[in-house]
Amino acid sequence: MKCRHCNTELRNVFTDLAYSPVSNAMLSREQLNGPESYYPLKIFVCDNCFLVQVDEMEKADKIFDEEYTYFSSFSKSWLQHAKDYVEMMIEKFGFDQKSLVLEIASNDGYLLQYFKGHNVPVLGVDPTANTAREAEKKGVRTIVDFFGSKLAKEYLLENGKRADLIIGNNVLAHVPDINDFVKGMKIALNAGGIITMEFPHLMKLIEECQFDTIYHEHFSYLSFFAVKRIFENQGLEMFDVEEIPTHGGSLRIYAKHKGDTSKAISLRVRDLIQKEKTEGIDTLAYYQGFQARVEKIKYDSLSFLIEEKRKGKKIIGYGAAAKGNTLINYCGIKGTDMIGFVVDASPYKQGKFLPGSHIPVVSKEKIAEHKPDYVIVLPWNLKKEISGQLDYIREWGGKFVIFIPELTIF
Ligand SMILES: [Zn+2]
Question: Can you give the pLDDT at residue 23?
């Protein structure tokens, strides 16, 4: 297999999580009786451009199908994050009713609704029909398709309007053809326009051993170093970057056309590249040793579960997100003997079953009925929000557990 960016043969394995089903493919009760598809989950690092990427597998259109059940608006903290971003961007760059804001992977309109609230025209692009329908209900016009150079040419140039702001939150890592995706943004961006993208920072993933953020929907794992190079290749230039706390540590990058001299390049761009290089981001040594740390988390997690189950404790999970599925499948947990059920706030997930493990997903009310001794917070990045909401488990002596970056009981 060749590097998605620079076409160099991929020779170096970063981590190998064996094989698992597609993380977001929740199962219905009927599907439990049928066969299930498993795919390898092996991640490589390119020794030329240092883009960390998944081995070639499942086509993107199969992953983001009609059944895709992630609705951004179900996370209160994510909504607040979107709202704060919109306020900041309007104050800083002054978008108004003459601007056009384009969001790629606009989901259910969770973010564009706030621009609309300021009378700024918006357009969403998202391949998932059921989330797009929710967006339309909020008045957010949405093209149901994958974004790339073809779509940018067809829809945007034909309409004669380029975007003054292109946003992509948690989409860059999901794109199979990252070069074409960035090329599409170059085409769709107005002269003097801005691109901002947020994505989990590879440096954080490695630092905190966040291996459960590795799943089939993520085609690459991004450092600032690698992304800067990919953008520059398409004639786009970074002019600012922020390190933000979302998803366990993300970057928000700001890009512009290379020829656009109206924006000063922040020192933060140089500083972050320097910081990554000091860590060794452009050396293979930096990526080695990750696998051994991943395996230690597996052994610690399973030891905890086995010991506590031997004592007869009741253990459940919270948060039926992709993260939890990577961890559960990598640990080889099947059925309900270790983790009795998983609670999730989304009504679209309740009544379904986790892929691979077939653990049932139920509503929050089940916690008070069942009175578990331990609640494993699977999306560890939301541990404060979730443990705050479920603080009542302490009434019967219940405790919270996270497995990453290390086994912690609190
Ligand atoms: Zn490469």
Answer: 79
